[in-house]
Structure formats: C-alpha cells, structure tokens
User: Fold this.
Amino acid sequence: MKIGTRSAGDALIVELVGDLDARSAGMVQEKLIGLLGGRSSVVLDFTGTPYISSAGLRALLVVYRAARAADTGIAVVGLSSELRGVLAATGFLGFLTVADSVDSGLLALNEAAP
Assistant:
C-alpha cells in the first residue's frame, strides 16, 4: 500500500493505492492517525484501492474514531462498486461521509462543520 498526501487549505487529502488488507492495515492505521492532528478535515481517496479486508475495515473504523476524538471531519471518496458494497454490507455507510470526488468530499465536510 502506498500513501500519498496533499493539502487543500487546512484539509488533507490522502490517496491510498493498493489493497487495504492484513499486511497493510496496521501501517495505514498508524500513518493516518498521525496525520489527523491539527486538521479540520481529512479526505481519504480510495480510487486506487481495489480491495479491503476485515483488517482494513477495522483500521478504517479506528481511524474514524480517532478523527472524531480529534474533532476532525473525515470523508471517503473514490469507492469502487465493490468497496461501496463491502462498506454498505458492514454498516460503514451509515456513519462515514461518502462522496464521489475529492471536491465533493471537501464540500460535504464543510457543510457538516459546526
């Protein structure tokens, strides 16, 4: 798994490329939690992620909880139909902010901000 980052104002866009599975989940979780500090919002771009395992789902949940604790908005974008199906089946779509593009993810987070 490769992780790329870029800023958009005080928001951070994180591009995840590769499978989010048992081999990569711990590293991804640690890296993402480390990036949360001082950010108002983080957009996770899954365009380059074809697969997510149960370990990846757990890492995503831990990151989501850490973002909430840090008062950082988090959105996921670029979900393939397969990833969207997995997130729907596991209930993640009930609490994650999901958008089709980085721009629409940033807009959704800005609209949800207090």
User: Anything to note?
Assistant: The helical segments are 25-36, 54-69, 81-89, 102-112. The first strand starts at residue 2 and ends at 8.
